Amino acid sequence: MATKNSSVTEFILAGLTDQLGLQIPLFFLFLCSYVITVVGNLGLITLIGLNSHLHTPMYFFLFNLSLIDFCYSTTITPKMLMSFVSKKNIILHTGCMTQLFFLCFFGISESLVLSAMAYDRYAAICKPLVYTVTMSPQVSFLLLLSVYVMGFLGAMGHTGSIMSLTFCADNLVNHFLCDIFPLLELSCNSTYVNELVVFIVVAIVIGVPTITIFISYTLILSSILHISSTEGRCKAFHTCSSHVIVISLFFGSGAFMYLKPPSILPLDQGKVSSLFYTIVVPLLNQLIYSLRNKDVKIALRKTLRRKTFS
After folding, report:
1. Which residue ranges does UniProt annotate as crossing the membrane (predicted)?
2. 1 domain-assigned
C-alpha cells in the first residue's frame, strides 16, 4: 500500500452517503441526470455546429460552455456512480491526481467562460454599433485561449500543491471525488501553505470573473434602463436572464465550498456544495440555455425538419 516515502499509492472514495437504503435510488437518480447532461450538452454542441445562424460570439462561448460541462460531468459522475454499487470505490494515486487536475481545469475554465459571456452581452447591448469589431472572431478566439491557459495554470497550481504532500496510513477520502480539502485532511505534513495556495488561486479565479461580470451587468442594466421601448427592455432582460441564473448557481456554490477554511465547513456540507457545482450545474446549464433560448429552439426545429425531409 505504501511507497518508500510513506505516500499511499491508492485511495478509497467514501462516496456521497453510507446509508445502504439510499445507494440504489441515488445510483439511478445520478445515472439519469448524467444521461440528460451528456445528451443535452452534446445536443447543444451539435445544434450550434450545424446551424450557421448560431455561429456568433455568444454561441461560440456557449458551445465551449457545453463542451466544458460535458467534460466536467464526465470527469466526476462515472466514478461517483461506482461508489453506489461497489463495496470499495478504489482510485489509484495517479488517477486521483488526474481527476483533481481536470476538476480544477474545467471548473476554472467554466468560471472564466461565464465572464467572457458577460463581456459579450455587454458589447452586444451597450456597444451594438461596434459589436462586430469588439467581438470579432480573432478577439473571441483570444478570449477563449486565455480562458483555457488560465484554467491550465490554475489546475497545475492546485494539483502540484496536492502532489507535494505526503499521505500516510489513512487513505479513505471522505468524499465522492478527489477534491482539494478532503485530500488535505489526509496529509501527514502541515497543509498551511497548501490552504493558502487554494485561497489565493480560488480568490483570483472567482474574484476576477465576478468583478468582470459585476461591471458588465452594471453597465448593461444602465443601458437597458435607457431603452425607451418596453419591448426593447424586455428583450434585453430576457437575453441576460439565463446567463445571470447560471452565474448565480455556479459561483454561489463554488464560493461556498472553497472560500471558507475546511475547519469551518464540515465535509458533509462540502459534499452537497460539490454535488451542486459538479453535477447539478452542468445539468441545468444546457436546460436553461435551450429552454429559455428562442434561437436554439428555432435551430432545433430546423434541424429536425431537415432530418425529416431527408
Report:
1. 26-50, 56-78, 90-109, 196-224, 236-259, 274-291
2. no
The enclosing H or E element of 28 equals helix 20-50
* β-bridge mates for residue 90, sequence order: 12
Residue 174: enclosing H or E segment and its boundaries?
Answer: none
pTM of the predicted structure, to 2 decimals: 0.86
In a domain, 165, yes or no: yes
DSSP 187: B
Report the alpha-carbon distance of residue 159 to residue 180 in Å, rounded.
Answer: 9
- Comparing 212-216, 231-235, 276-280, the range with the smallest average pLDDT is 231-235
Nearest to 288 by CA among 66, 52, 4: 66
The partner residues of 92 in beta bridges, in order of sequence, read 10
Q: Is the residue at 5 inside a domain? A: no
Tens of pLDDT along 27-71? 999 999 999 999 999 999 999 988 888 899 989 999 999 999 999
Q: Which residue has the cell 499511499?
A: 8
Neighbours of 200 (CB within 10 A): 12
Residue 53 identity: H
Domain of residue 81 covers: 10-309
The whole-angstrom separation of Cα 117 and Cα 58 is: 7
Q: Are 44 and 290 in contact (CB under 8 A)?
A: yes
Tally Cβ neighbours within 10 Å of residue 245: 15
What does the alpha-carbon distance between residue 131 and residue 147 come to, in Å, rounded to a whole number?
Answer: 21
CATH of the domain at 188: 1.20.1070.10
Distance of alpha carbon 111 from alpha carbon 208, whole angstroms = 9
Q: Is residue 164 part of a domain?
A: yes
C-alpha cell at 56: 456568433
